[in-house]
Amino acid sequence: EPVIIGERINPTGKPRLKQAILDVDLDYICRLGLEQLENDAHILDVNVGVPGINEAAAAEKTVLALQAVTSAPLQIDTSDYETMERALRLYNGKPLLNSVSGKDESLAKVLPLVKKYGAVVVGLALDDDGIPATAAGRLAVAEKIIARAAECGIEKRNIIIDPLALTISTGPDNAAVDLEVIRKLTEQKIKTIMGVSNISFGLPSRDAVNSTFFTLAMEAGLSCAIINPQSKAMLDAYYAYRALKGLDGGCKAYVKRFADSVNKVPTAAVSEYTLHDAIVKGLQEQSRLAVTRLLETEKPLDIINTQMIPALDFVGNGFEKKNLFLPQLLMSADAAKAAFEVIRDRMADGGAVEKGTAVVIATVKGDIHDIGKNIVKVLLENYGYNVIDLGKDVAVEAIVKAVLEHKAHVVGLSALMTTTVGAMAATIKALRDVCNCRIVVGGAVLTQDYADSIGADHYAPNAVSAVGYVNEVVEK
Ligand code: B12
């Protein structure tokens, strides 16, 4: 059953992506990746070769960003040896490298890297004399690559041969040659890979040619197809082929795809995400755009409560169940912060009334969670309070000092972990020893009972409750 490799992260002929690579707009690149995965790609090709840039540095950043938003395998696609080495080095898992060729220099440089990093490598059927015209010629190059790899200790199963699709508009036998190479290699149990759409270069209505060639190639045994998963014709061919070959019991996947397509047209351009999805997927720019759209119709606090917090809860739960990992949590937190900055700026436009009362706010020692505390801060400022924000991971003494210095009437403390509520208790105790300020506490792990047990004056389950309490204290 062939594997689909999404081809869209490749700047050739794509000015928007080229610009994104130049601007290090990782958000855009990640979205291109996620969309292909949503459209059933199994692996993402990653090619950031834009002339004149530091390709190795760009590849490192891109691989890290993609691996933070998806666990799908990546194909590192480059002809630059330094880029290969650096991307292979930091890739999590077993990398797929595209490519080595039958050229002596390429074999000498690439194969040791493949061995060193335990990669799977794509072997291109071309050598110092170019691309052989015949199937026999390309098979000979494949044999040479496999033999040289064996000398380096690389097993056959870690090599995938690309017969190289050349357009049929200039050579009537080009498709037949590829299919012959794929058939012969499949008989020898050697895996094959191909960038399918090159076959139609220069022709009109390319999808028709590509999808038919794709079907023929699958029938010949193609193991990996580098295609645009957002092409309806290609995916139709793929699912129809699986159903016809008995690879799709009860035609379930085929029928599901049809049912889905009634509701959804495959996206040709990069699509819009809801705020919830943008945060869950860790996309900062999408998060900003989504929140900006929402602010046209909804209130800031409603957006926080109905989209931001549920999205963070969702990733928090995933993290707890171990199906999401820390890099993803970090990406989501950054996306939530990006959205919140937009909300904050909007709230600041509201023209707050200065009440002047000083409120000191901090996340306690040992705890670096500050998204919730920042929301409380902005809301308090919006109500005209003079908020002195001490930040996160703040020592007991620093909080005491600030409260005395600013003669604060109210102190807000945040703790999000069971391991840091102890620091909250210690802070309250130290404050009680030196002043009679009111203390309001909040943060995901706290409860009313716990707040009572550590001597807090008020437990605020959310930012609105926090403001209500401060208003009450000030009025009294
Ligand atoms: C985002 C996040 C992170 C981000 C934080 C980024 C940041 N700048 O804040 C990052 C990725 C850095 C992170 C790191 C870690 N995290 Co974390 N994280 C979360 C997550 C998913 C969301 C928290 C959040 O922002 N929620 C949204 C905000 C708006 O809600 P909130 O904080 O509750 O705030 C509201 C109210 O509580 C209240 N409130 C909050 N503060 C205050 C303060 C005052 C004064 C008042 C009045 C009210 C108030 O009002 C707010 C608005 O309504 C939670 C899971 C969850 N569902 O809560 C885990 C979670 C808190 N993290 C957890 C853990 C374990 C960690 C790490 C230890 C992971 C690790 N192995 O490294 C580290 C901790 C490092 C440290 N020393 O602190 C655990 C804690 C488990 C526990 N029971 O102790 C949780 C619960 C995830 C889980 N289920 O396992 N995390």
Summarize the structure.
The radius of gyration is 29 Å and the shape is elongated. It starts with a strand and ends with a helix.
Spell out the key features of this protein:
476 residues; alpha/beta; TIM Barrel; Methyltransferase, Methionine Synthase (B12-binding Domains), Chain A, domain 1; Rossmann fold; 8-stranded parallel barrel; 5-stranded parallel β-sheet; elongated; binds cobalamin
Overview of this protein structure:
This protein is α/β, with parallel strands linked by helices and 476 residues long. It has 3 domains: 261 residues, TIM Barrel (Alpha-Beta Barrel), CATH 3.20.20.20; 74 residues, Methyltransferase, Methionine Synthase (B12-binding Domains), Chain A, domain 1, CATH 1.10.1240; 118 residues, Rossmann fold (3-Layer(aba) Sandwich), CATH 3.40.50. Helices cover 52% and strands 12% of the residues. It contains 19 helices and 13 strands. An 8-stranded parallel beta barrel has the order 1-2-3-4-5-6-7-8, surrounded by 6 helices. Helix 7 packs parallel to helix 8. The radius of gyration is 29 Å and the shape is elongated. The termini are far apart. The model has no long low-confidence stretch (mean pLDDT 92). Bound molecules: cobalamin.
Query: Count of helices?
Result: 19
Give the % helix: 40-55%
The CATH topology annotation of the largest domain reads as TIM Barrel
Structural class given helices, strands, pairing?
A: alpha/beta
